[in-house]
Amino acid sequence: MTRPRQRRGAGNQPPLPAVVLGLIGLVVFFGLPLAGLLWRAPWSDVASVLRDPHARDALRVSLICSLSATGLSVLFGIPIAWLLARGRFPGLNAVRALATLPLVLPPVVGGVALFYAFGRRGLIGEWLSRWFGIQLPFTIWAAIIAETFVAMPFFIITVEGALRSLDTRYEEAAATFGARRWTIFRRVTVPMIAPSIAAGMALTWARALGEFGATITFAGNFPGKTQTLPLAIYLAFENNDPAGIVLSILLLAISIVVLAVVGSRVFANRAREAGG
Amino acid sequence: MRQRRTLLVVAVTAAVTAAVSLTACGSSKKPATATTAPTKLSGSITVLAASSLTKGFTALGKEFEAANPGTKVTFSFGSSSDLETQIEQGAPADVFASADQANMDKVVTAGDNAGTPVSFVKNKLEIAVETGNPKHIATLSDLTKSGTIVVLCDPSVPCGKFAKQVLANAKVNLTPKSLEANAKATLSKVELGEADAAIVYVSDVASSGKVAGVTIPDTVNVITTLPIVALKNAKNAAVAKAWDAFVVSHASELVSTFGFLPL
Amino acid sequence: MSATGLVCDVRVRLGTLDLDVSLRAAPGELIVLVGPNGAGKSTLLRSLAGLLPIDAGRIALDDTVLDDPGQGAFVPAARRSVGVVFQNGLLFDHLSVVENVAFGLRSRKTSAREARRVAAGWLTRLGFDADAGVRPGQLSGGQIQRVALARALAFEPRLLLLDEPFAALDATTRVEVRRELRRHLDSIDAPKILVTHDPVEALAMADRLVVLEHGHVVQQGTADDVRARPRSLYAADLVGIHLLRGTARDGVVTLSDGREIVAATDGALSGTVLVTIHPRAIALHSRRPEGAARNVWSATVADVDDDGDRVRVRLGEPVPLVVEITRGGRSALALEAGSPVWVSLKASEITVQPD
């Protein structure tokens, strides 16, 4: 008995083993954990947990910190990415290693390092405290700094890649039309890598939102001020408080919605951008 | 034909991987074999203990291993509520030593214990300040002085629960700068010089060596009893029980060297 | 500031290229720059545009020094008044057509509204007939080139550079756009330098043709000059003429392989010479021709290329030449690859010039 001939576009579909592996991976690493969470969720308690000011405080702090961290990452990340992509000086690789260090550093170590830099007795912190009366630890600014520390490298890497693959002829053309460096940057370079900047921002924001170790070490934990959603969830689990699961689902829901909305537009645009 | 063979290989690999990981997880669920032979102890045990017992138990562990060659004691220190959750979730452990009765009660209620918990030391709270007490803190109400940075444990962990109680007893209205996840983290803020004061256990202050202590009067203080119990799912029930007995008999060492209180 | 045009002596070393070019371009003059790949045409344009500082020499435009390493003077690209039309247009895809054209003006601090007004004017003048509010991605090749030209002209540059502006266009569009472009360029007072590979464009548009090879100018002159007397293989190829080298004596030129060619030149010419043979000087015969033709030899056909209209016959040794004949001629001579054929060259159609 002959098998019916299968019509398949030669290069359009991945080979069967790859599809199978992909599906297994999706289910095991992404689907099952999420399903486990939803299965255990105390659905009857969801309303009361979400109405609790505790939960709303945590959400508010999380959003403020993660959005601020993203903003700072963009502000400082673009120049750093530019330097790494276009710079030509000895020690460039050392600078890149430095800028991406937080990626390999355990977050708690990052938190401790931030203490040693910005704490009351820290390298800079001491001066800030003595001369300006600024004390960073245990404030929401500490949480923002901690989140920026861990999340900025994601932004830098994304944007550096985009800058590297950008066709420099457009910037040269802009120069011949009379545009000075800032104008070229503003009107040509940045718009041309806009999809990558957006993708970087999405990644950075997601990382900042989920940050725990560096935040709890450097900023501490105080409801309404420095207690972010991950911290609240951790402590709720400590207490066997079912609110922990509800808050986890809340965090997941927010992340999924944002990443889905931003992701579809951003990643589709990146394909266009790559085509030049 | 080639596609089918590759698919078979993938499926077999996946199945083998799954099987191996399941057996690895399952191996810890073997029932404890009862040993009646009294003398030669051997094997290793995992002890889940409150973080306040870190230095004390580590020292006792070495003594136990020296006294019973062939045994090995591995510790996992953390906040008692954390540890209790782990036990409930089936973490492989032989012994549980809690910082408070409440978490031990949860373990007993869940039926994870083997035998009755035994108390071995007591503990109470103390104010930890920087060496030399530069801010001249003498009482609990001094903590509310403006410009004083105070950190406490989060109320979800025992030392935080107790600190709240102590402050209520003393009728002191304190807003801390941070509520840390466990006593060690709380104390470390003072050790690092980031906080002026913290409320932790006397044992923590004693084992630290980097901070000074300010006594909290017993009239407002919380005196907590630390219990220990062998766990039902212990891999090595004999060594677990032996360790329990060892701890109880050497409790005085915990008192004299590590700052705990006698029963 | 007077309009004296472009005066440049450019010496640049880039990789294996050693560029050494002296060029003058009068106001309004259209210079066509040709040469093989790697000759240095783009490098020269980049230096003029200010994207590549020169190593030695001087570039002056309308008496303003743009680049003079000796004096330590260098005007960066953004501050030169040089308009460039790039290959493939190189329009900014994220800006609309009118924003593209207005770019140069806005960079020079013209208000957005004024810039757009001027831009729209240029687009109309250059015959752009699509919606100026769309993005370049939706334009055809010809329209892209019009926009690119408008963009380069909108801020009224004092030098216009065009780098193979028609390279991306198909043959028909090319012809049409080329005629238009010639008209527009004629009305511009600034000196213009256009780089092309297309011989027809080069010969049709140039006021002056400059042939660049290996970083040096090997020939300059009007199209007619170059057509009549190409001085390099590239130039000859460009104008569709054969170029051979040999030694002349008493009216006879001896080619490098020993063959002798008789040319209608005065016997006074001697020494190394360049011989140009126009295709119409060559005739093919099935047998040894009678008559006064002095240069006659038998050859073998290397291959025959029938492109529908005309037939190109490539001859092999002893003198490799390409001849164009009609289809009728081909069948009359029964020519295939490998066929024997007799070749005659009319001496009067052969030019000889000193090398």
> Biggest sheet of chain C, strands in spatial order?
7-8-9-3-10-11
Q: Judging from the principal axes of the Cα atoms, what is the shape of chain B? A: globular
Tell me, rounded to a whole number, the average pLDDT of chain C: 86
Question: Helix-strand pattern of chain B, N to C?
Answer: HEHEHEHEEHEHEHEEHH
Strand content of chain B: 15-25%
Topology, number of strands of chain C: 21
The total of helices of chain C stands at 9
The greatest interface between two protein chains, and residues involved on each side, is: A-B, 30 and 30 residues
Order of helices and strands of chain C: EEEHEEEEHHHEHEHEEHHEEEEEEEEHEE
Main attributes?
heterotrimer; A: 276 residues; mainly alpha; 13 helices; globular; C: 355 residues; alpha+beta; six-stranded mixed beta sheet; five-stranded antiparallel beta sheet; 9 helices; 34% strand
Strand-helix topology:
The complex is a heterotrimer of chains A (276), B (263) and C (355).
Chain A: H1 16-40, H2 46-51, H3 53-86, H4 92-104, H5 107-118, H6 125-132, H7 140-164, H8 168-176, H9 181-192, H10 194-210, H11 213-218, H12 229-238, H13 243-274
Helix pairs in contact in A: 3-7, 3-10, 3-12, 4-7, 7-10, 8-9, 10-13, 12-13
Chain B: H1 2-26, E1 43-50, H2 54-67, E2 71-78, H3 80-88, E3 95-97, H4 101-110, E4 113-130, E5 150-153, H5 158-169, E6 178-180, H6 183-191, E7 197-201, H7 202-208, E8 211-215, E9 223-231, H8 237-249, H9 251-258
Parallel strand pairs in B: 1-2, 1-3, 5-6, 5-7
Antiparallel strand pairs in B: 3-9, 4-7, 4-8, 4-9
Helix pairs in contact in B: 3-4
Chain C: E1 6-14, E2 17-25, E3 30-34, H1 41-49, E4 56-61, E5 64-68, E6 73-74, E7 82-85, H2 97-107, H3 112-125, H4 141-153, E8 159-163, H5 171-186, E9 192-195, H6 199-205, E10 208-213, E11 216-221, H7 223-228, H8 233-239, E12 242-249, E13 252-255, E14 260-262, E15 271-277, E16 282-285, E17 295-306, E18 311-315, E19 322-325, H9 327-333, E20 340-345, E21 350-354
Parallel strand pairs in C: 3-9, 3-10, 7-8, 8-9
Antiparallel strand pairs in C: 1-2, 1-4, 4-5, 5-6, 10-11, 12-13, 12-15, 13-14, 15-21, 16-20, 17-18, 17-20, 18-19
Helix pairs in contact in C: 2-3, 2-4
